[in-house]
Amino acid sequence: MTLALICGQGWLPRSVAHAQDQRPLICVLNGFEPDGIEADLTFHLETLGTLLETLKSRGVTQVCLCGSIRRPMIDPARLDALTVPLVPRLQTALTSGDDGALRIVMDLFQEAGLRIAAVDELMPDLLPAEGVLTLASYAPQNSIEARLGERTVAAMGARDAGQACAVRGDTVLAREDSAGTDAMLRRLARDRVAGSGDFLTSPINAASDMFGGLLGDATDWLTGGVSSTEGGILFKAPKPGQDRRADLPVIGPTTPDAVAAAGLAGIVIEAGGVMILDRARTVARCDTLGLFLWVREKGG
């Protein structure tokens, strides 16, 4: 056995494991168990040093980080002898942005002699070619929204602060934070329901809309926007300069329902930069809901 998956939550680890000719070693961070697959071993962040030694002793030569993980706190009482020397770097990782944290963790695996394999290297079909994958297509307005989405995610990425946003017209409705894309869409759906079909308006939002033409994107960082009409897009793309070996953005079969509940008209993802989990089901669900799914070239 040469491959180990370092797994977080979600269905991605299962898909990666099932795509391999030989079952990889499934290693799960305690508290972040993936869906649909059992762990071969479970570890804590405080025992990472022991995990590295265990992987080498089992003949593992490469690892793939896949699945969603929120930042756990280090419990000093759990630390083992092999992990104590790593604590300063782990603490730096926990206080860094997402990409910075992953780079530190990947460095630790590489220094242990383990190669980092990217998810799309193990499952190339997860990255779709450019084009519209659904029966419904995007409208000219959605092209304008996609350009705003691209600029917004690029600005977020410069702050290492997320990979997705929701856009309607010339307004950024919401930005992904550490809770993830699904949580962002759930917030939009709650606001939509509470507003009886429209998104809630606050005094700050109203001021942002009033002066947005003068202040530009700066007002977007104060608050999410509002609109009285349905439509708009979920835009998702990797961060500028992102290390593609981990945390490449992904959508899947549950994404269309969340997008529809948020009152959006479609999904736009960057070609070559966002994976689609279970593409056939994802596209079929978009078709059922009347959404479009556009795989867009960067800058298109």
Can you characterise this structure?
- With 300 residues, this protein is of the alpha/beta class.
- It folds into two domains: 3-122, Rossmann fold (3-Layer(aba) Sandwich); 127-296, Cytidine Deaminase, domain 2.
- It is built from ten helices and 13 strands.
- It has helices spanning 12-18, 48-57, 87-94, 98-111, 119-122, 140-158, 181-194, 203-215, 255-261, 279-289; strands at residues 3-7, 25-29, 41-43, 62-66, 115-116, 131-132, 164-168, 171-175, 233-236, 250-251, 266-270, 275-276, 292-296.
- A hairpin with a 2-residue loop joins strand 7 (164-168) and strand 8 (171-175).
- The radius of gyration is 20 Å and the shape is globular.
- The N and C termini lie far apart (43 Å).
Largest sheet: 6 strands, mixed
Structural class: alpha/beta
* Tally of distinct domains: 2
Instruction: Name the CATH superfamily classification of the largest domain.
Output: LpxI C-terminal catalytic domain
CATH fold field value of the largest domain: Cytidine Deaminase, domain 2
Q: β content, as a range?
A: 15-25%
Rounded average pLDDT: 86
Strand order in space, largest sheet: 6-13-11-9-7-8
Please provide the count of β strands. 13
- How far apart the termini lie comes to 43 Å
How many whole angstroms does the radius of gyration measure?
Answer: 20 Å
CATH architecture heading of the largest domain:
3-Layer(aba) Sandwich
Global outline = globular
